[in-house]
Structures are given as structure tokens and as C-alpha cells.
Amino acid sequence: MKVIPITSAPVEAESLYAAHKKIYPRTVHGVFARWRWLFVVLTQLVFYGLPWLQWGQRQAVLFDLAARRFYLFGLVLYPQDFVYLTGLLVISALSLFLFTAVAGRLWCGFACPQTVYTEIFLWIERKVEGDRGARLRLDGQPMSLEKLVKKWFKHLLWISLAMWTGFSFVGYFTPIRELGLEFLQTRMGSWEVFWVFFYGAATYGNAGFLREQVCKYMCPYARFQSAMFDRDTLIVSYDADRGEPRGARSRKADPAALGLGACTDCSLCVQVCPTGIDIRDGLQYECIGCAGCVDVCDTVMDKMGYPRGLIRFTTQNAMAGGWTPRQMWQRVLRPRVLVYAAVLVALCAGLAWSLVERQPLKVDVVRDRAGLTRMVAGGRFENVYRLQVMNATEQTQRYRIGVSGLNTLAIVSGTEVEVGPAQSRWVPVRLQLEHDAATPGSHPIEFSVRDASGMAAVTEKSAFLVPRQ
């Protein structure tokens, strides 16, 4: 029997994942680029500026977790006001549903913190290293003194901005002026140091390095946005009927004579895309709706002397049916959108009304567990309670305590209490009842607490216990 030797050829390992390619977005100018920078400026003015605003003798916006008080300009909120946070979250969710149903990922493209800080970091990168072509050349060069200086200077600016962002974030929870003084005196608390560095590192990493990867792989919104889209949602779309077949040509050439569409195949729409997609391939989940491709394509159309709108915000139905803008907008304002808008307006109005009518006084009643009921001099029954009186105003207030529910029931301890601004105080209250005024058992009573002016009044229910003989 003849033995045939077996030879093994070298096996090449094949990766299951494509290597990540760095994206170098090109600078773009136009209507949507100006809108995007407007939102960058507005959001950062609010974020960086609010902690420094003063309201009277305190910070205007402060979430004081240690004292369990949240200050929002003239409002002082307690943990018992958690319902307002719930309402705010519901309103935010409905707003997202509404904006997505109308025009897709507007939040992602214009106001999302990831988009905003990526735009700022890219602006710094362009100022230090140059536009897209210059950055490509710089990264392709071997290390040199010029490259080292530019890279280190860019990262120094990035880190400075990121740390200032972390400092501003912590300034919402610790008075920022005190925080700044503690920083200068190197007396910052361990948790404050941790959160400044944590938030700063997150900003530096997400906006400086991860960028589009956060939008494509980490953000869940990219995955479930299609559930909120329909064929009447405004999305960034490429008009293939008008643009194809694409091809290069001179400005003076007649595209019809060459058998070409309006697309010059310049690929600028790809170069300006912050997530690196080609919008000409159709709607993709990576598209964040920033409309950079719309701006750059309109610029090319202007140079070629073609009508604008080869890439534009439109709906799938409008694109397929060749609708006019009026027809398109009539379908955009469809019942689904109107219902979202009506519910959102109703919730906002309800939350605003609740805040306006909110009592600047809160009361909690706790029975004294040391003893349920005791007999005192004169044959009276006595119950002891503890009332937590919370003053939600910015001035010292005097409150009068009353009780009702049983005949001859009276308060034998003090009936007036003074509470400082935005403070709470526990008040012991002793109630006494005549021996034969009620049958044995539990009887409902009601405490009332009101301020001296009578503008704020709160009632709380409790029970008075009469023992069996």
C-alpha cells in the first residue's frame, strides 16, 4: 500500500470584525451648520453658566443632596416632590417621540451632548491641525517635532475643556463658588474629586476618541428609532431619481446629453458625515440627521447651476409620489403627531399649574412609638405625636398648629413653631382628650398647620387612640 504524505498549507487567520477606520469630517457651511452651532452655543451657555447664577444669597440652580433640597431659582423642592421629576421625565420622553415622529433624529443631530461636545472637540482639532486634508496628511507623516507639538497642544486643550466640564457638572451639586475655593486651597472632598475626573474623562474619551462609535454602537436610540419612524417622517434623503446615474462632468456640460443625473459623484456628502456613511445608499441607522450632507450638496448644486435639494429633508411618501412641500407638510402634521403634541401640551400645562399652586409648606405626622396612650392628671387620655414641618420658602416663617376631629380634643404643648428659610423642624405635639369624650378604639383626627398670613395651609390625617378600661 502506497502512503501519500499529507502536507498542510499555512492557514491565515481571518478577523470577524473589521478594523475601525478613523473618520475625518470635513468642515461644512450652510443653514443647518449654523443651526447646529447655534444649539452648541445655547446648550453650553446654559450648562456652564447656570451654576454661576445667584438667586438672592444662594446659587440659583443647586441640587443639594446632602441637605436633600433642590433649588431651582425661586423653588425649593424636597424628596417628597419627586412627582415633579417623574412628570419632567414623562414630558422628555413624549418630546422625543414627537420630534422623532416629525423629523427623525433631530435631537441626535443638533442637541445631544455627544454631538455637541464632538462638534466642539472637532473645532479645536481643526484650529490646531487644520481641515480634513491637513489632518490626513499629518496623521500619515512619521513623528516629527511639528506633529508632536500639534498633537500634544490639541490634547492639552481637550483635557482642559473636559476637566472644566467635569468641574461645572459637580458645581450643580456642590455650590460652585465654594468648590472653586476648595480647589484653589486643595481641599476638595474625595467624592467631588472623583466626579470631576470621572465626568471629565468621559467627556474626553467620548468626544475625543469614540465619537461616532457612541452613536452607532453604544446609544440605544439608534436601534429603536425605526419603531418611531413611518413613511411620513421627515428624514435626510437622497433623490436617486434625480441624481442617478451619477458621474463627474464639467460645469458647462449638459448632464442630459451625457446621460447623467444631477449627482457629480464628488463624495463630499461622505466626507462631511460625522458617522462616515454614504447617504446615497439610502436611510441607515447610523444617520444622526445633522444635515451636513444637505448643506454641502446644496453648495455643489449652486456651483454647478443645478436646483438645490438633491439631498434634503423629505419623507418617503413625498419622495415616491413627487409631492409638493405643501402636500408633504400636510401629511407630516398627521393624527399621530397631533395626539403627541396635544398630550405634551396638556402635561406641560398640568406641571406648570401644579408648580404655581404648590404649597410652600409640607407636614409629616409620626406617632410617638414610646407609648401609644397614657392617662394623665385629671383623668384625661394623652397621645404624643411628632410633626415634621418643612418650610419651602426663602424666608423664616411662623406656623400655627391646630387639631380637629373629636370634641374636647386639645393641644397641650406649644401651638406655634418658627422654621428658618428652606429648613425643616421636628415638633413634639401632645394631644389630650376628656375621659368620657370618645369610645375605646382608634378615632380619625386631622392636624392643620398654617402660616401667620394664612396663605399656606396644610392638613394631615392621623388617629387618636382611646384605651379600653
What are the SSEs and their pairings?
Layout: H1 31-49, E1 54-55, E2 58-59, E3 61-64, E4 69-72, E5 75-77, H2 82-103, H3 106-111, H4 113-129, H5 132-140, H6 145-170, H7 176-184, H8 190-210, H9 212-218, H10 221-224, E6 235-238, H11 240-243, H12 255-258, H13 268-271, H14 292-304, E7 311-314, H15 316-321, H16 325-332, H17 335-356, E8 361-367, E9 374-376, E10 380-391, E11 397-404, E12 410-411, E13 416-419, E14 424-433, E15 441-451, E16 457-466
Helix pairs in contact: 1-4, 2-17, 4-6, 4-8, 6-8
Description:
By secondary structure, the chain is of the alpha+beta class. It folds into three domains: about 30-225, no CATH class; about 235-320, no CATH class; about 360-465, Immunoglobulins (Immunoglobulin-like, Sandwich), CATH 2.60.40. Helix content is about 45%, strand content about 20%. Helix 4 (about 115-130) crosses helix 8 and helix 6 (about 145-170) packs across helix 8 (about 190-210). The model has no long low-confidence stretch (mean pLDDT about 90). This is Cytochrome c oxidase accessory protein CcoG. Keywords: 4Fe-4S, Electron transport, Iron, Iron-sulfur, Membrane, Metal-binding, Transmembrane, Transmembrane helix, Transport. It holds the Pfam family Fer4_5. It comes from Caenimonas terrae.
